[in-house]
Amino acid sequence: MSGAALLLTALVVFALGYALGVVSTNRRLQAERRILRELDCSGVQSALDLSKRTGVGIGSVYVHLARLEQEGRVESVWENINPAAEGRPRRRFYRLRTQG
Question: Which CATH number covers residue 84?
Answer without folding.
Answer: 1.10.10.10
